Amino acid sequence: METEAVIASRWAELEIMDRSALRTAWAKAFGEAPPYFLSMIFMRKALIWEAQCRRFGRLAPDLRRALKAAADRRSVRGPAPAIRPGTQLVREWNGRRYQVDVSEDGYVMNDTRYKSLSDIALHITGTNWSGPRFFGLNKATGSGA
Length: 145
Known about the structure:
Number of strands: 4
Number of helices: 6
Strand content: 5-15%
Largest sheet: 4 strands, antiparallel
Strand order of the largest sheet: 1-2-3-4
Distance between the termini: 61 Å
Number of domains: 2
Shape: elongated
């Protein structure tokens, strides 16, 4: 059966379910009983969403984080810009200048290969940083010391 037809069929099933049947379907889909106060229409929408996720796949983790941030009224940042191989990143930290070369398979600093900019930022500062943030590749740039 065509995917859209499967989802439409599931929606038709949900539309005729009473509260008790919806609560049972919820427990089966989500592994626990729904909060008592949920409306029937909300339960139907959540159940059809769950069916769509099973059929089409879930939201990507970065999109889920962005939606959570927006729901919490926090700023939402886009992904870090793509950096082409051959690019050189320069950062001053505690009076010392660091230069990183972007390669096809990672980053090189002082003849040492790193998987990520965050690994390099950790090496330089001794603390966990967002690598793109540390190197000023997004709006929330790190402050130099």
